[in-house]
Structures are given as C-alpha cells and as structure tokens.
Design goal:
Chain lengths: ~110, ~110
C-alpha cells in the first residue's frame, strides 16, 4: 500500500482521529490514551499499531511506557492532497452562490 | 460509519484518487474513466460505487450513460480536518528549524 493510501485508511476511524487530536497536546502513554475512550487496552493498542504503521505516530523506546508521539508528515500530506481541490470546491460554491443571486434577482424584479 | 470515516476510507486507494483527479476536468462516463486505467468496467464500477456511497461523486440519471460528477463537500471536509493540524506540523518544522540553527550556531562559535 502506498503511503497516502495507508494514511487515509488509518484516518477512516473516529477513535483513531480522536487519538490524533489528543496527541496534539503532547506525548501520551497507552493508558493515558485509553482513559477517555472506555476501551480495553488491547483495543487501543490495536488502533495505535494502525497509526504507527501509517507513520502518523511514533512510539518511545522505553519498553514499559512507550509514549506515543504525533508525527506531522502524513497529516501535511493529507492537507496538501486536499488543498489541490480547493479551486474545485470554491468554484462549485461560487456557482451555487451565483445561482442563488440569480434567483434573488429574479424575485426582486418580479416584485418590482 | 460516519461521513468523514467513509470519505477517508474511499480515498485510501490510488485508483479512486486518480478518478477524483480526472473528474476535476469535468463529468465523465464509466467508459471514459476506465480508459486510462487498463481495468475492467466492473472493477471501475466498483470503485465508483465506493466513491458514490461516500458522497465524493454523484451519477447522472440517464440510465445508459450515468455520467459521474465530482462533489466538492467531502473534499472540503477533508481539507478542513487536515488544516486544523497545520499549526502542529508547522510547529514541528519550526522546532526542527530551531534545532538546526542551534547546531549551526554552536559550530560557528566552535570555529571562532
């Protein structure tokens, strides 16, 4: 699997996205990450493995704690990928905007 | 599955991302989309179904052609989601930058 596909697949889960959001506040252990989710440690560990394989997090070397750290690279890749389509969606909102203005103008001229 | 998870799952495939890129140039039929991929029509149709379920494309009503059209909404959602982390990755690049400057300064003062 290519890097970007692995990143998107890892992000296709609300728990994993919540873990990423939590890690912007700083490194955290598996226990700290599991606390707000009402999930078993093995379930959280499984999510962390998916995130780690996608390069979205890295783990410390300390065997007992292995704190998780967010890695910026893949997130930037996603933003860069989506950003390429900005022109497209801004265009399509512009078209909607023009359409709404057109309707409004017609209604105004009907009123007159 | 929540909307954003469905979008990320649909984007976790290079062929589907290539189809999206192609559709920024305008609507296209399944045949037109299949042409550059050296893929069977059923394989392309399967990808289109995933994209359609995720709301990334819509299909025309004409039963024979059903042209595919890119929908901007979910792409904007992805960009907005990733954009929230900009501060994080810019921060982490800043930290790297500061670290490199620090090393350089040390080397400069050692030379002096």
């Amino acid at each position: 699997m290519d890097q970007l596909s692995a990143t998107f697949a890892a992000l296709a889960d609300p728990t994993r996205r919540a873990i990423i959001a939590r890690l912007t506040a700083g490194e955290a252990t598996v226990n700290e990450l599991a606390a707000p989710f009402d999930m078993s440690l093995p379930a959280v560990s499984k999510h962390l493995k998916v995130l780690e394989r996608a390069g979205l997090i890295s783990r410390g070397r300390n065997a007992q704690w292995r704190p998780c750290k967010l890695e910026a690279g893949p997130l930037k890749e996603v933003a860069d990928w989506a950003e390429r389509y900005r022109q497209f969606w801004e265009g399509s909102f512009d078209r909607l905007d023009n359409y709404l203005k057109e309707i409004q103008q017609k209604e105004t001229s009907n009123d007159a």
